[in-house]
Amino acid sequence: MAKDTLKQLDRDVDRWLFAGAQIARTDPNLAAARDTLAPLAARAPALGKVTEQIEKLQNATGKAAASELLALASLMAQVRGAQATPALPEANGDLTPLTPTRKIGTPLTPTELNTLVGALTNAPDARQRSRIIRDYAMSDRGAARDLRLLPLVVPALSDGAIAEVVVQYLVPALGEAIVPSLQKHLDLEKGRALDVRLLRAIARIEGAKATDLLREAVEKGVPDIRAAAIAELGRIDPLAAEPIALVLSEKDRSKDVRVAAVHALAGAPSDEALDVLLRAFGGTAELRSAAEISLAASKHPRANERIIALFSPELRELGHYRIKKATTKEEKDAAAKEQKAHTNQVEYLVDLVDLLTARGTDEGANLVLEAFRQHKVKEVRDAAARALLRIGFPGAWEELMPSLYDAPDTTKDDFVGGVIALDPAKAHDRLARFFEPLALAQKKGLDLAERILARVANHFVDLEEGDDGTPGNGESAEATQKIRNDERWVDLGVAMLGNKSLRISALTLLVHARSPKTLGDALSVSREEGLSSEEALLVFECLGKQRDPRILHAFLRLLEPLRGGYDYGRACNVMTAYDDPALAPMLRSWLDAKQKRKRLSRAEAAPFEECLRFLERARTAAPTVD
């Protein structure tokens, strides 16, 4: 008990050194450690000293708290040293070079570090924590690859409010530097939610090198661990996962593990795997959903033939259920059973329609089109319409359009993606109609237009390539290039700046497009009254990619709608990157006037002071040529 408490206290001290003494002295973990260690002080004098120092920190105020925190950190270092044992290698060997990895250092400025640490440690003034972590992790300059963040990542994985965004964005940004710390805290047999996140994070970073760990997790882990392990193994190495997933999918006692195993069979090439997936498709709703995803991605040579064969004549002719008159209990039970069986058939057929469409074959699409036009059951016709919309099916364009606005959000997103994937060069011709006044006036017209702008903007985002060589934005290289070459998308973004409901989406597109033709329109927006902080920041970023003397005055105008250290920090990052010495006196004058009207807090003023120090630095004159 005491040893575990000391280990946790040691980790907490590392965290508090970043978060600050005032947070440390009121942290509930500190009080819990004191309550656990105090009864043991009589038997272990060292624990008495630790307890005494904890109380000093809790009672300290002002600057004294910082001194007491440093004293506690020093004491914990002594305790850690006393418990340490040398870890010698098992055998001598030749030196080998380390695996090449991406550069990691300390790229965060003090203000950025304070903001990100506050988000990770849930500091009292932290706001929009998930957004801050995601923005820094996705920064083009690799800001989140900072060594000082490593001690904070594992505690953040225990924080349910930000755990998923840390796993999805921050951990991959840190790369292999964080793996030893993740492995240190991983306990496969306990199977806590934290352990599941740690296992997923390690697998995302190490890829094929994590295969042995994932096999061990399948053997030793609780259901949640086994499910995560087989899912990651299927993603990393489908061939290695296949024999394990075949057993788990039909024999494991946990439904979640069976579902994860069915997902893992998506890349399995054997006939046995295809049989298992087809049986799962005819099973419970959860298994069918997983099997549908795996069958849609299956590369088995007979997959299309076997899936199309499921669309039997009986299912094509399936009609509405006719309620039978029943008087006795036996007749009522039989009627209820028949009705449930009919409902199951309809649900099966709806999922089959989705699967046929996802396979992307002409024969499958024509079967779905037939169901859309001729099937007797409305639920099936509606499902066929949604399925055809998702792939942007051109064979029944005008027939499908009335169904689009009332379709689910995922269908709308898939529809936009399907139109772009079908022919990126003609995507503007097909999607521009949704920005006409009559289309925008539809009940959900603005929502659809916003989704189109967001999807198009994604093609202009430059992210690192994935393991398979595809762009990091998830779009194909061909589609990305064709969208970027079509200047009509930039013109559409400019045209939508006048629509306040679409302005943020339009600005996001223009920021990533970086087109010089947008300068005048961005300057016009900067002069408008009543801009939101998000709009102002997007205009900031848009102008920051251009060069024009009018931009400096626009920067100062755009500072007015901003509020808080995070907004000011983003704006100052743009001005720092712009790096125009003429901006320094203008910004200094604006800041002085702002301070006279309303005194900025230390967190709000820090980004400006940091930016001004950079802009006002001594600049070396360029050498002249005689």
From TrEMBL:
TM annotation in the entry: none
Quick one: where's region Disordered?
87-107
Any Pfam family: HEAT_2
This protein's source sits in the domain of life called Bacteria
The name of this protein is HEAT repeat domain-containing protein
| Source organism (scientific name) | Polyangium jinanense
Classification from the root reads: Bacteria, Pseudomonadati, Myxococcota, Polyangia, Polyangiales
